[in-house]
Amino acid sequence: MISDKQLIRLSKFLSLVLRHKPETIGIRLDPNGWTDVGELIEKSNGHGILFDREILNYIVSTNSKKRFAFNETLDKIRASQGHSVEIELGYTNQKPPEILFHGTGEKSVPSIMATGLEKRNRQHVHLSSDFGTAVEVGKRHGKPYVFKVLAEQMYNDNFQFFISDNGVWLTDSVPTKYLKQDEV
After folding, report:
1. Radius of gyration over alpha carbons of the chain, in Å?
2. 86-121 residue pLDDT tens
3. How far is CA 134 from CA 16, 37, 62, 147, 170, in A?
4. How far apart are CA 151 and CA 144, in angstroms?
5. Where do the domains of the chain lie, and which CATH numbers do they carry?
6. CB-based contact 31:96 (threshold 8 Å)
7. How far apart are the first and last CA of the chain?
8. Which of 70, 84, 109, 156 is the most exposed place for a label (fewest CB within 10 A)?
């Protein structure tokens, strides 16, 4: 069907156009981040990124991080989270577990301890409910380092938390007083 290398390339391409730069191929995301599947395929193919509906279905259903989702009628697609373009994902505030985790590279620890976790060019700070996932995220940034986030305490102090379709916890920021250092 399609090689692993091609799947990774297409997944990265979809992340680019569905999370950050839809204008790359001339598509638009609606206010909730959705775009028409047929138009996505047509405009991608027109820019030399070749795939069809079958391959797109395969990417969405097998992506280990569940980065993409179809709507109920399967005619629209969006990224589950991680957008740098302004969209409203429609998530409702939810009470998080007592502790969540944030994985990063060891080199970022001093900066984070000075300012807390900030969303920077994304819409939210991303947190995971399990330590192992945070370690894997941290590995993408060098030697991994994991912070424990006192999420329930933050929630009780009126911070909002959301959970994406793929199970990633989202919040606007995490001040340093809610961070506990937990070296890998």
Report:
1. 17
2. 777 777 889 999 999 999 999 999 999 999 999 887
3. 22, 31, 21, 9, 14
4. 21
5. 4-79 (1.10.10.970), 100-182 (3.20.170.30)
6. no
7. 38
8. 156
Distance between CA atoms of 3 and 96, rounded to whole angstroms? 38
To which H or E segment does residue 14 belong?
A: helix 4-15
> DSSP of 109-137, one letter per residue?
HHHHHHH-EE-TTSSSEEEBSSHHHHHHH
What's CA 17's distance to the chain center, in Å?
A: 13
Q: To 10 degrees, the CA torsion angle through 170, 5, 146, 158?
A: 0
Q: Is the pTM of this model over 0.70?
A: no
Q: Which element (helix H / strand E) includes 146?
A: strand 144-149
At residue 165 the predicted structure's pLDDT band, cuts being 50, 70 and 90, is confident
Question: The tokens 């409702």 sit on which residue?
Answer: 92
Question: How far from chain centre, in Å, is Cα 131?
Answer: 17
Contact between residue 105 and residue 112 where contact means Cβ atoms under 8 Å apart? no
How far is the C-alpha of 44 from the C-alpha of 47, rounded, in Å? 5
In this structure, what DSSP letter does residue 75 have? S
Q: What share of the chain is helix, strand, coil (3-state, %, to 5)?
A: 35, 20, 40
Which of 100, 94, 139 minimizes the C-alpha distance to 117?
100
Taken in order 96, 101, 102, 108, is the CA torsion positive or negative? Answer: positive
